[in-house]
């Protein structure tokens, strides 16, 4: 037994060299000692031997990465898991009845059809599990940029005899992506303790039956937390939140283009992100390799994200405008449908304050990805939709969602009356009818707008 133990101690760890490379990078050392590297890895100087070591390590890491999706999902669920593991049946029955009432009240204020499918009643763990794939989709460009930067730094510092093997190897990229995914899972798990519904963040996180659909969902435990201290009957809060969530779902179900459009705007912003290798090295000098949590702290601090480019600022402006229009419409419709509730305005104001400030987990997502999902013009957008309703009626108001070019732009917020008047401009002759309909409703509309 002793001989076996001694024999195993003499066997070099073929993967130690890559761990040492990462350690040195985060210590801020400017290079590697080739002889020390060779001794640690048992490298004799034969490049094919080193290639074999990398392939062996990559094979093991690839197998681990195939399970990284499951690992990050499980981590998000663990972070979310300090609450109920299932929705109380009595609470679920009460909410189901309120959802039916919410649907009926919405039918009175909008002709947007009620989507099929029963809204989900979710625990925090359910929400984290269901929404993590969309968060990953939004964050992948940042993960890829970070991986490229760290890989570039290590490859640049590596000795010449190692560079050829490292170049193009998936090992470093996969390691960094895995770290980032786990950090994102931590954020999503924390977010699950703050959100109250599927559409709470504004971005469509609950995908329905196809890529265009959005699924409605409520998180009863968090609704209870939101209701505490409002001085409002819990049933009123439940009904208000149900109306708001169903309104959000109806909008995305009616405007079939909207979900992909929003995700495209997120992608336009995220694809512009790059990581400055020099800045990465400067920050790496302050990292203590004996404390792995420092690496996670660096990723989640936002320190690696550069200043936004001009193109990113424009993309972010377009995204913020669209989120404001979406949430402004939902806010406006909810106010109409919930007008029978005695404390509707009190609940609405609490919702607006909550949305304007965001919670700690939302801030964590902002620092991790550089993207703030908060409409700055929610109140203005809600008021704008109210003015469109007063001037032209519900059919014209909701018809504007038939095509993105029909919607108000950033400039229209500065001249709401001009936008409202422009909607109401009648065609000067019969030959202008088609153009007018296309301007108001989009090229596929067959309905004539109410110009009253």
Task: Note the total helix count.
Answer: 21
Poorly predicted residue ranges: 25-43, 56-65, 288-292, 427-433, 443-452
Report the span from N to C terminus. Answer: 94 Å
Averaged pLDDT, please?
77
Quaternary assembly: single chain
As laid out across the biggest beta sheet, the strand order is 1-2
Q: How many domain regions?
A: 3
Radius of gyration: 27 Å
Tell me roughly what share of residues is in helical segments: 55-70%
Tell me the fraction of residues in β-strands, as a range: under 5%
- Sheet with most strands: 2 strands, parallel
Shape: globular
Give the number of DSSP strands. Answer: 2
Overview of the molecule:
- This protein is an all-alpha fold and 452 residues long.
- The chain has three domains: 13-87 and 124-193 and 289-308, no CATH class; 88-121 and 197-272 and 310-376, no CATH class; 388-441, no CATH class.
- The protein is built from 21 helices and two strands.
- It has helices at 2-10, 16-27, 34-41, 47-66, 68-80, 89-107, 124-157, 160-166, 171-191, 220-227, 234-254, 258-270, 277-284, 293-301, 310-337, 344-357, 360-369, 378-392, 394-399, 416-423, 433-441; strands at residues 120-121, 217-218.
- It has a two-stranded parallel ribbon.
- Helix 5 crosses helix 7 (124-157).
- The longest helix is centred in the first third of the chain and has 34 residues, at 124-157.
- The protein is globular.
- The N and C termini lie far apart (94 Å).
- The relative contact order is 0.10.
């Amino acid at each position: 037994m002793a001989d076996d133990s001694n024999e195993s101690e003499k066997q070099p760890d073929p993967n130690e060299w890559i761990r040492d490379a990462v350690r040195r990078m985060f210590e801020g050392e400017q290079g590697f000692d080739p002889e020390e590297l060779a001794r640690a890895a048992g490298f004799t100087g034969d490049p094919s031997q080193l290639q074999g070591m990398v392939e062996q390590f990559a094979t093991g890491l690839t197998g681990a990465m195939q399970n990284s999706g499951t690992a990050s999902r499980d981590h998000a669920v663990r972070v979310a898991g300090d609450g109920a593991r299932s929705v109380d049946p009595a609470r679920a029955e009460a909410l189901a009845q309120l959802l039916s009432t919410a649907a009926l009240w919405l039918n009175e204020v909008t002709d947007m059809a009620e989507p099929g499918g029963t809204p989900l009643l979710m625990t925090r763990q359910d929400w984290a599990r269901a929404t993590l794939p969309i968060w990953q989709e939004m964050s992948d460009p940042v993960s890829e940029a970070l991986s490229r930067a760290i890989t570039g730094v290590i490859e640049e510092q590596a000795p010449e005899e190692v560079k050829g093997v490292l170049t193009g190897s998936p090992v470093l990229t996969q390691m960094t992506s895995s770290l980032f995914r786990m950090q994102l899972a931590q954020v999503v798990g924390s977010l699950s303790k703050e959100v109250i519904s599927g559409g709470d963040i504004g971005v469509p996180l609950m995908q329905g039956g196809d890529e265009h659909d959005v699924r409605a969902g409520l998180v009863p435990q968090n609704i209870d937390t939101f209701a505490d201290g409002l001085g409002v009957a819990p049933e009123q809060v439940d009904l208000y939140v149900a109306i708001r969530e169903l309104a959000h779902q109806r909008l995305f179900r009616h405007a079939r283009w909207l979900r992909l459009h929003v995700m495209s705007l997120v992608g336009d912003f995220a694809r512009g992100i790059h990581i400055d290798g020099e800045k990465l090295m400067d920050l790496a000098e302050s990292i203590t390799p004996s404390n792995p949590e420092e690496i996670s702290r660096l990723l989640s601090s936002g320190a690696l994200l550069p200043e936004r480019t001009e193109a990113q600022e424009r993309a972010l402006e377009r995204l913020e405008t669209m989120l404001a229009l979406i949430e402004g419409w939902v806010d406006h419709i909810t106010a109409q449908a919930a007008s029978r509730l005695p404390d509707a305005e009190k609940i609405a104001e609490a919702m607006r304050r909550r949305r304007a400030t965001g919670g700690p987990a939302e801030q964590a997502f902002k620092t991790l990805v550089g993207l703030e999902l908060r409409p700055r013009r929610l109140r203005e957008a809600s008021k704008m939709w109210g003015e469109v309703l007063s001037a032209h009626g519900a059919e014209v108001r909701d018809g504007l969602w038939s095509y993105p070019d029909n919607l108000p732009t950033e400039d229209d917020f500065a001249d709401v009356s001009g936008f409202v008047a422009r909607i109401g401009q009648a065609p000067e002759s019969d030959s202008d009818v088609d153009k007018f309909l296309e301007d108001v409703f989009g090229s596929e509309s067959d309905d004539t707008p109410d110009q009253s």
